[in-house]
Design brief:
The structure is a single chain. With 407 residues, the protein is an alpha/beta fold. Helix content is 36%, strand content 23%. It contains 15 helices and 15 strands. The chain has helices at residues 86-93, 98-103, 108-117, 120-135, 152-168, 191-208, 226-238, 255-261, 275-284, 292-297, 306-311, 332-343, 347-353, 356-361, 388-392, and strands spanning 9-21, 30-39, 42-48, 55-62, 67-70, 72-74, 139-145, 172-180, 214-219, 242-247, 266-269, 287-290, 316-318, 379-382, 399-403. The protein has an eight-stranded parallel β-sheet with strand order 6-7-8-9-10-11-12-13. The radius of gyration is 21 Å and the shape is globular. The relative contact order is 0.15.
Amino acid sequence: MYSHNKTAMQCDRLWKNARLATLTGEGLGIVDDGLVAARDGRIVFAGRAPDAPSLDAAETIDCAGRWITPGLVDCHTHIVHGGNRAHEFELRLAGASYEEIARAGGGIVSTMRATRAATEDELVASALPRVDTLMAEGVTTLEIKSGYGLDTATEMKSLRAARRIGEVRPLSVKTTFLGAHALPPEANGDKDAYIAAVCNEMLPSVARARLADAVDAFCEGIGFTPQQVERVFEAAKAKGLRVKLHAEQLSNLHGSSLAARYGALSADHLEYVDEQGVAALARAGTVAVLLPGAFYFVRETHKPPVDLLRQHGVKIALASDSNPGSSPLTSLLLAMNMGATLFRLTVDECVAGVTREAARALGCLDEVGTLEAGKWCDLAIWDIERPAELVYRMGFNPLHARVWRGK
C-alpha cells in the first residue's frame, strides 16, 4: 500500500496501525485497522487501512495499536484574566454564596480590577500555564472569551492577548467578545447605559479590529436581562458576528429561546432550561454546552435536563469553562468524567462533546472535530484500550502524542 510508485498519493505523514474514533456520523465512528494520512497540515485519508489509496509518505509513524481521536476542542473558556479568586473560594467554604460575594464587590468585578491592572504581556504570560495544561491533554482548538475588562481598552487588550496565545503556541484559538458579562462599578448600577456602551462603543471597536469570532453575553439575574442581551445580539448581527449565550445557569430567564431566535452557535450552562427552551434550541440547531466544572465548583444541585436535550435531538458539547471564579478547571478529561458522573452523559456523548459537538459549538466543524479528508490534521493519540478510559479516570492523562495541523 505505501508504495513509492508515481501513481501513489503523496503525503507528508502517515499514522498506521491505529484504532480510530473518527466521530463521523452519530456515534464515535470506530475503525479498528485504521490509518490517517496528512499533507500540508490537512487530512488526505482517515479510515480502514485496506481502503486507503496507494500512499507515498515522507514519514510513517507506527501507532502500535493506540487510539486516535480528533484533537480535543475546549469550546468555552475565560482563560485570559488577571489574578485569581482563591480568597473567595475560602469565603464560599465558610458559607457565603456566589451571589453574595458578587454583590459585595467580589466575583467578576474583582477579576476585572486585576485584569485592568495587568499588561497585555502579563495576561499572556499568566494564561500560558493554564493553556499548556489543556494542550498536554490533547486540546488543539480553544475558545477564549473576554469579559473581565468591562471597558473598551481592557476588552480589546484581553482579546489581543487571547489571539497572541494562538501565535505563541501550536493551537487554534477562537475569540469571543463578552462585554455584557457584568456591570463595572463606574456604571453606578445603570445596566441600560452600560449595554448602550457595549453596543455603541465596545463592540464596534472590537469588530473594526477583527478581534472577535463571536459575541457572548451573561443572561441572568446578576447579569443582564433578555431585553438587554437582545440589544447586544442586534449589534453583533449588524457587524456580521455570530452569537452565543450564557443562559439558564442560576434561573430560567428564557435566554435559550432568545439565543435560538438569533441562530446562536451555542447556549451554555442550561441548568434551569425548560422544555420550551430546549425545543427552541433544537429548531435552531444551537448546541447545548454543558459545564460540569462550574456546576461542581459552585455546588449547584439543579442539573441540566439531559434527557430533554436528548429527546429533542439537541447536540451536546462539554467544556472546561476555565475561569477564576466558578470553574478554575484546566482539564477537559476531568470535565468529561464530571459530565458522566454528575450529568449521566454516556461515554459516546462525552467524547463527541469535546470533539465534534464542541467544534460545532464554535462554528468550525467544517475544519476540525472529526477525522475526515479535507479537515485540519489535528489529532490526539492515546495510550488506551477503549475510549471509555478517557472518561473513566480522574487525574490521569493517557495522551501519547498531540498533533496540530499535521505536526
